């Protein structure tokens, strides 16, 4: 039964992601995992602060249901379908250990050095997670979409703005990993 | 009851994100180091099938099940918002090691500190709403 716990290869995962996008299109919606953040802000009254949040958020409640489902899916997969380890390129794992003291590659799903409760005692770590999230939320709305909305939905529809956004995603990601990580870790 | 389908779609999506390891910090780091084909294979194969499927939908003029219009309207034109917004997003994606979909998946998987990232993302979304009119688009 070990195969149940094996990760899915890219040629299974990628097509299944495309399938999710098509299912959403055929129920009259579009695939995008960040607009729910705007819906959530509107639902808790952010409309008082900005007209950006004054829209019929109740019509967008469906994307909050997708979010709830994604959480349930994560629960099911981690508890019943995975041994919660991720094998990466041994050279990358070695580099993480040598440069950043992150030695959990191959034995964890997320590095406990950053994501375990113990890591809360490090204020820098709290800052990393909060600011990382902040940049994701701000950037996704500024760019009008995230990985799913631009890199999958938008590029599938051959949208030039999505190509520009995806190039931006990679510029930002490469700057962070290659120039900023060595400064903060 | 009409929301049930979205819950099922979300569960399906969550399992895919977790099992593909696209929700793993390690995979995102490895991707930006160009040390593995895995993430590029996921995005690339989704994209190839996505492009083919969207072309078929358009050429056959297919409609959603309820007879409405497909949500395939063109994005607003522009460069600045997509480039700057994209770069800001990319910085955060690599810093937190998670983009919006996987954040929720990881919360469900029991990683409590991901809630800090989700809180940050809500804050960032709110901040954009406040600053929107002052930003170049």
UniProtKB/TrEMBL annotation, chain A:
<keyword id="KW-1133">Transmembrane helix</keyword>
<protein>
    <submittedName>
        <fullName>YeeE/YedE family protein</fullName>
    </submittedName>
</protein>
<keyword id="KW-0812">Transmembrane</keyword>
<dbReference type="InterPro" id="IPR007272">
    <property type="entry name" value="Sulf_transp_TsuA/YedE"/>
</dbReference>
<feature type="transmembrane region" description="Helical">
    <location>
        <begin position="124"/>
        <end position="143"/>
    </location>
</feature>
<keyword id="KW-1003">Cell membrane</keyword>
<keyword id="KW-0472">Membrane</keyword>
<keyword id="KW-0997">Cell inner membrane</keyword>
<feature type="transmembrane region" description="Helical">
    <location>
        <begin position="62"/>
        <end position="81"/>
    </location>
</feature>
<comment type="similarity">
    <text>Belongs to the TsuA/YedE (TC 9.B.102) family.</text>
</comment>
<dbReference type="Pfam" id="PF04143">
    <property type="entry name" value="Sulf_transp"/>
</dbReference>
<feature type="transmembrane region" description="Helical">
    <location>
        <begin position="12"/>
        <end position="28"/>
    </location>
</feature>
<keyword id="KW-0813">Transport</keyword>
<feature type="transmembrane region" description="Helical">
    <location>
        <begin position="163"/>
        <end position="184"/>
    </location>
</feature>
Automatic annotation (TrEMBL), chain B:
<keyword id="KW-0472">Membrane</keyword>
<dbReference type="InterPro" id="IPR007272">
    <property type="entry name" value="Sulf_transp_TsuA/YedE"/>
</dbReference>
<feature type="transmembrane region" description="Helical">
    <location>
        <begin position="38"/>
        <end position="57"/>
    </location>
</feature>
<feature type="transmembrane region" description="Helical">
    <location>
        <begin position="78"/>
        <end position="98"/>
    </location>
</feature>
<dbReference type="Pfam" id="PF04143">
    <property type="entry name" value="Sulf_transp"/>
</dbReference>
<keyword id="KW-1133">Transmembrane helix</keyword>
<keyword id="KW-0812">Transmembrane</keyword>
<feature type="transmembrane region" description="Helical">
    <location>
        <begin position="104"/>
        <end position="131"/>
    </location>
</feature>
<protein>
    <submittedName>
        <fullName>YeeE/YedE family protein</fullName>
    </submittedName>
</protein>
């Amino acid at each position: 039964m070990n195969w149940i716990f094996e990760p899915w290869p890219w040629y299974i995962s990628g097509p299944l992601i495309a399938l999710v996008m098509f299912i959403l299109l055929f129920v009259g919606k579009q695939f995008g995992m960040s607009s729910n953040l705007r819906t959530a802000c509107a639902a808790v009254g952010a409309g008082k602060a900005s007209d950006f949040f004054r829209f019929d958020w109740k019509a967008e409640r469906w994307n909050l249901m997708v979010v709830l489902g994604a959480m349930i899916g994560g629960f099911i997969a981690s508890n019943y379908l995975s041994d919660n380890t991720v094998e990466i390129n041994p050279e990358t794992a070695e580099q993480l250990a040598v440069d950043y003291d992150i030695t959990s590659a191959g034995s964890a799903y997320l590095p406990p050095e950053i994501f375990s409760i113990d890591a809360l005692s490090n204020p820098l770590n709290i800052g990393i997670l909060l600011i990382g999230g902040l940049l994701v939320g701000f950037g996704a709305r500024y760019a009008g979409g995230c990985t799913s909305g631009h890199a999958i939905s938008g590029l599938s529809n051959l949208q030039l703005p999505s190509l520009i956004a995806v190039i931006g995603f990679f510029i930002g990601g490469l700057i962070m990993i290659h120039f900023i990580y060595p400064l903060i870790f | 009851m009409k929301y049930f389908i979205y819950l099922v779609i979300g569960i399906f999506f969550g399992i895919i994100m977790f099992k593909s390891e696209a929700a793993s910090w390690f995979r995102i780091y490895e991707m930006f180091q160009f040390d593995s084909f895995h993430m590029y294979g996921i995005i690339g194969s989704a994209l190839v099938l996505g492009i083919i499927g969207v072309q078929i939908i358009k050429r056959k003029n297919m409609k959603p099940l309820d007879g409405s219009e497909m949500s395939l309207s063109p994005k607003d034109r522009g460069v600045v918002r997509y480039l700057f917004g994209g770069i800001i997003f990319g910085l955060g994606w690599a810093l937190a090691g998670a983009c919006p979909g996987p954040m929720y998946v990881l919360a469900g998987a029991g990683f409590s500190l991901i809630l800090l990232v989700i809180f940050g993302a809500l804050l960032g979304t709110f901040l954009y709403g406040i600053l929107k009119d002052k930003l170049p688009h």
